[in-house]
TrEMBL record:
It comes from the Bacteria. InterPro entries: Phage_coat_Gp5 (IPR024659). It comes from Edaphobacter paludis. The lineage of its organism: Bacteria, Pseudomonadati, Acidobacteriota, Terriglobia, Terriglobales. Pfam families: P22_CoatProtein. This is P22 phage major capsid protein family protein.
Length: 398
């Protein structure tokens, strides 16, 4: 009986299975927009082109009393662009197609897809720099209380109860397991972290260890920055007074007297609103950009006030600190999409394109007559966007 050959479709499906198992951040991002980039053959970025405009939820104010008081609905949107192509290339011989899929996977796919998954996940995790809410416990060891405070921030910023996810870096996992070691129990729900390093559900949040989430390198400013600033309502630009210290993209700052509010009642939360620096600031007097844009009135109000001469403080550690961070979020905070690359099999080439859980992958292989080799390539074309950063919180701790 002749050996049956592995088809490109079988190999692509196996590659997607391996990829999916290694993407616990991307795998939990919102991928509902992915089908908008399904390929019709006209464009490598899908039938709508490389960009998609996504409408954000509308916000409203409340009327008091019986008298009608209409309000203008101000719709906002964001643009998600698919423009990043990553792939992994290798060579295998034709006789290797006679292997079982398990053997082929062990020899070729697992090593190749592992490095592809790590690099795509690391790229997407740059969205963490867009998150402005943070639990600042940088002077202490990561604890269960830090995680609970992350959940508190999700609640206070109205994150839906479902599809909540925690991504904990490996150092924080060690601290967490040490903190709960007295709870060891052979029952699966308690023993899982000890047996297979999967954290499971913590406070209603599906929690995973993530080895790719990198420490954050902050700017040269200390917690006491030495700056004062002017914050203007409706503007993301902060006018910084004279100073020498720098801020990196992703640094989190507060401004004295500028308090966070409840998104619905508009009452002060009693703590300062946190802002994230959206572009590196080289220091000195000048303009620094932050998110969220401070708004002091109307349905989109997010702070109690703005003003001049505000003291600027940095969240999360000292000057030029490299600090460890984890993340909790609701999936609507981040979007990740892939576009269908052209399926080269329709041109007679050995290849296939498959989609699994919103991730599209293409594999192709063709004989190179010049070098007498048969190279194989696996490709992803993708994009990502932080849509609602208020539905996420960073946890900064040792």
């Amino acid at each position: 009986m002749a050996n049956s050959l592995l088809s490109p479709t079988i190999i692509t499906r196996e590659a997607l299975r391996i990829l999916h198992s290694k993407l616990n951040f991307i795998g939990n991002c919102d991928k509902q927009y992915d089908d908008k980039f399904a390929n019709s053959g006209a464009s490598p970025s899908g039938k709508i082109g490389p960009s998609l405009t996504i409408r954000m939820p509308n916000q409203y104010t409340i009327r008091n009393g019986p008298t009608l008081s209409t309000q203008d609905v101000v719709e906002s949107s964001q643009v998600l662009t698919v423009s990043t192509q990553k792939g992994v290339d290798f060579v295998f011989a034709s006789q290797d197609l006679t292997l079982t899929i398990d053997d082929f996977s062990e020899r070729y796919l697992k090593p190749a897809i592992s490095v592809l998954a790590t690099n795509v996940e690391a790229d997407a995790l740059n969205m963490v720099k867009d998150v402005y809410n943070a639990v600042d416990d940088n002077a202490a060891t990561f604890s269960y209380k830090d995680f609970a405070n992350g959940r508190r921030l999700l609640n206070q910023y109205l994150a839906p109860d479902d599809d909540r996810v925690g991504i904990i870096n490996s150092g924080h996992v060690v601290s967490y397991l040490d903190a709960i070691k007295g709870l060891f129990n052979p029952q699966e729900s308690v023993a899982r972290p000890y047996l297979n390093a999967k954290i499971g559900k913590v406070n209603g949040i599906d929690t995973f260890e993530n080895t790719v989430l990198a420490p954050f390198q902050s700017g040269t400013s200390a917690a006491a920055t030495g700056y004062t600033a002017t914050l203007t309502g409706g503007s993301s630009t902060v006018v910084m007074a004279v100073g020498a210290n720098t801020f990196n993209q992703g640094d989190i700052v507060t401004f004295s007297t500028v308090f966070a509010i409840d998104p619905e009642t508009k009452l002060s939360r009693g703590y300062l609103q946190q802002f994230v620096v959206t572009a590196a600031y080289a220091g000195g007097a000048g303009n620094m950009t932050v998110s969220p844009t401070p708004i002091t009135a109307g349905a989109a109000q997010n702070v109690t006030n703005v003003g001049a001469g505000l003291t600027v403080a940095k969240v999360g550690g000292g000057a030029s600190a490299l600090y460890s961070q984890s993340l909790v979020f609701q999936k609507e905070a981040f979007a990740f999409v892939t576009a269908d690359l052209v399926d080269v099999s329709k041109f007679g080439a050995w290849g296939a394109r498959q989609v699994m859980d919103g991730i599209s992958m293409r594999i192709a292989r063709q004989y190179n007559i010049t070098n007498d080799t048969v190279p194989c390539r696996i490709d992803l074309l993708y994009g990502y966007k932080t849509l609602r950063p208020q539905l996420a919180a960073r946890i900064i701790a040792q």
